[in-house]
Amino acid sequence: MKSFSFDTKPFETMLLGPARAYAALSIDYSEKLVGAQLEAVKAYTDTSLAQARKLLEVRDADGLRSYLEGQQQFAKDVTERLKGDAEKAVTLHQDFFQQSQKLAESSLQEAQKVAQSQTAKA
């Protein structure tokens, strides 16, 4: 009976290694994105609850006027926060794309090397 020998190194190099690297990159990206989203939700929740508490403190016309004037600053702060959160998300997306692209390029180069060495062996 003949024994069957299969070299798994090319398979590992061309398929499994890059797949693992991409999976790790995706998990890291997801962790960062979820963390940023949770941070944003907490900030928006804290801000909204603070505004609700300020509204509960309104007792008269002057208090209402003061509260309404504070709404301009509140709107400005929320707008700034939204802008910052959007920029953070864009930065995360761009970083993930660049790292994915580098990973694909290095995987392709490694696959070409393996293919050339397999051709040379044959």
From TrEMBL:
- The domain of life for this entry's organism is Bacteria
A single Pfam family, by name? Phasin_2
Checking InterPro entries in the record gives:
Phasin (IPR018968)
Record domain Phasin: where: 18-106
Q: What is this protein called?
A: Phasin family protein
